[in-house]
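Entry 14: structure prediction run for Endorhamnosidase. Input pasted below.
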Amino acid sequence: MSSGCGDVLSLNDLQVAKKHQIFEAEVITGKQGGVAGGADIDYATNQVTGQTQKTLPAVLRDAGFSPASFNFTTGGTLGADDADKAVLWPIEDGGDGNYYVWRGSLPKVIPAASTPLTTGGISDSAWVAFGDITFRAEADKKFKYSVKLSDFTTLQQLADAAVDSILIDRDYNFSNNETVNFGGKTLTIDCKAKFIGDGNLVFTQLGRGSVVVGAYMESVTTPWVIKPWTDDNQWITDPAAIVATLKQSKTDGYQPTVNDYAKFPGIESLLPPEAKDQNISSVLEIRECTGVEIHRASGLMACFLFRGCHFCKMVDADNPSGGKDGVITFENLSGDWGKGNYVIGGRTSYGSVSSAQFLRNNGGFARDGGVIGFTSYRAGESGVKTWQGTVGSTTSRNYNLQFRDSAVLYP
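Run finished. Output tokens:
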């Protein structure tokens, strides 16, 4: 390229540079030759390297955005429905050639001869640059996840903005019975961080085919737990010896219940007040949904409740340490009897009641529902339970479910 004589440039250098400039201008503007009057193109080819690259307007469209009909030089207005419009800051007018998307409130007026800096600034809540490398990184994220939690304050805001896939990329502290309505959208919710709270986090109106991947539930409060087993895996049955194991932990035991009072007579009077009537759980509740699955869930004092659900599955639980109730519960005490609900694979540990339990489910002739290939470790009451009798005035009995290839491990 260069002649080697200092900074002297040859004619060939200039020609090659010009070809690169045209290529870069085409990629940025999406116009043939990089000029305003050029034909719209989706791909530009570098005449020197032979590299073919998608133009930014084409990548914008693929990522769910589109170029605005104006730029920062001409000025214009982004309307209330223009959150998907990207505005160009032209190089020929002193800009950087990037497209910018407005993340603030709409409508937004952009005066003529302005810049992103003079019309709100560049930040996550104002103008966001989508040029070349920065745009492609953002576009790649958008192809995989339509939204991510770190861009929002609440889960409901995230749900409202979601299109297909959601990334939980920061810990989220929820309040008891906080409810997130997904509006019937079919979503993949990929959890790379924790949901933290005491009580229930409720997901409702998830569309059929939705999958929650890697949900991690953790209580705020560390409960008092007992562990009626020795270090060499023998049962402890003496009440005083069991109470001697009492400690605060989220990982090594379960909260005592009235069931323990019956199993170990005399233990109730020996337990201190702080260890009685606890109700510490961090619960992900899937409410009144059909065809929703939770995959590879985990957590501490964690519970997973499917309430009023049908054809839902808990798949490959990743050894969550259970809270005060059943670790995995399918409860259909109102409306139609539950059908098609399964626990498939995976393992849970501890929990005060059962590892997996069913209330008012009926799999019908096909025995559509039950537990397959699951392992329960040291549940406080039972590994797998089908309720009998009534809850209030409603029967909790279950019929025609299948239970196979599973193990309940004690002590």
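Notes: Residues 1-6 have pLDDT under 50 and may be disordered. Will compare against the previous run tomorrow.
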